[in-house]
Write a structure and sequence with these properties.
Length: 75
């Protein structure tokens, strides 16, 4: 039908949120996973850090992830 009308048919995926927000959210998710794993290990040894330190670690890890290869955020 499109050809008969002299048109091309195209499917387009349009993100619901900007790419920058998606990358930031994924980096935050990965950073929280890493810090949670470390915190769990430390808690087993009765050395769990406080919430403030954990928040700082999440922020630092997120920054590190964003400076690296962004394709690895989805590994």
């Amino acid at each position: 039908m499109a050809d008969a009308l002299g048109c091309d048919l195209r499917y387009v995926l349009i993100p619901r949120t900007p790419l920058a927000e998606q990358v930031d959210a994924q980096a935050e998710h990965k950073a929280r996973e890493r810090v949670a794993s470390l915190t769990h290990t430390m808690a087993i040894e009765a050395q769990a850090p406080d919430d403030s330190f954990q928040s700082q670690q999440v922020a630092a890890t997120k920054d590190e992830l964003l400076r690296g290869r962004r394709s690895r955020l989805w590994d």
